[in-house]
Amino acid sequence: MVAAASLVVAAGAVAGVLAAVDDRRASDEAAPPAVSASPLLASLPAVPSPSAPATGGSASPSPSPSERRTKSPAPSRTDTKRERTGAVTGRLYRHLDSQVLAWVRSHSGDPRHAVIASRIAEQPAAVWFADYAPDTVTARVAAVTSGGAALGRVPVVVPYAIPGRDCGGHSQGGAPDLDAYDAWIDRFAAGLGSGEVIVVLEPDSVAQTACLSAGDRADRFASLARAGRVLKSANPRARVYFDAGHSGWNPPATQAAWLRQAGAASPESSDGIFSNVSNFHTTADEVAYDRRVLDALGGPAGLGAVIDTSRNGNGAPADGEWCDPSGRRLGRTPTLSTGESRIDAYLWVKLPGESDGCKGRPGTFTASYAYDLASS
């Protein structure tokens, strides 16, 4: 089983590479938008190494860095009984600044245009903020959330700047340390506005923590719990979901224990969990897995799950291939009406057609790959 990790390519670096590609590449790939492209997959060990659990739950709302790193009291009894506000309803927002839309606008004569335009470009997808740019993040988030509010639609945003992400692998980067990350989250939250918004908080940040020491894991979980509180305090209509990996990764009890330490069982921080981001496991497998994680997690009965269905139409490859595997296809279209108890939404968190680095340049929308997914 291959776990979902992410490979981030800086937009500026990608743009510089694209300037030098040949004509065939230029017609097949789109330059990245102003917002970050959705990250990619990397292979991980099949079984996480054993690790000691961190202690405690959510930290106090505004601790000093030293206090937050050393003391993290468990949620009160009243926290676990509180009910969250009902799940988001309505229609999801399609942000107009994306790589697939850039390609569609500039390739009207391409024979693949109609399929890509109708099956991918017209669907709402998440917007990633994968670069550490504190001076601009508030305005960039606000551009997305205000666009959704103007149309009465629900945007999906993905903060992805936790320090030590990908265990120092392909996706290393993010904020320089947790104090900087906390400040970045404050600025991210300032752009959320007052309308409905779904926040997919830090893919891989919980599921991929076996590489951390117990102390570093506790520190990360304290920052994630704080992030949830800050986001929900900034916009009470924000729905914040925490990383549950996917059905081929950690056992539900292990994942739930880590999620609990990261604040995912507290209604002050969390509305539930997300799974399958940038991965390929079937919706049925994810529904079953997420319910088991939620049962083990505890917390308010109203906690739910959202599932990335962008590329899971044929399920995960039997050979465990993670890099643009052949034979995959689009999954269920994004919706806030799943018809499944405790499953709040099917989302396209990873934009279909953005390559993992095998069928196109990493992080770029690649028309040939998109067409394969959309026409399978």
Structure description:
- The chain contains twelve helices and nine strands.
- By secondary structure, the chain is of the alpha/beta class.
- The strands form two sheets. A seven-stranded parallel beta sheet has the order 2-3-4-5-6-7-8, covered by helices on one side.
- α11 (283-297) links the parallel β6 and β7.
- α6 (113-121) crosses α12, α8 packs parallel to α9 (214-234) and α10 crosses α11.
- It is globular.
- The model is unreliable at 1-25 and 40-84 (pLDDT under 50).
Distance between the termini: 24 Å
Number of strands: 9
Sequence of secondary-structure elements: HHEHHHHEHEHEHEHEHEEEH
Main-sheet strand order equals 2-3-4-5-6-7-8
Beta percentage is 5-15%
Q: What would you call the shape?
A: globular
What Rg, in angstroms, do the CA atoms define? 19 Å
Overall mean pLDDT stands at: 83
Spans of at least 5 consecutive residues whose pLDDT stays below 50 are 1-25, 40-84
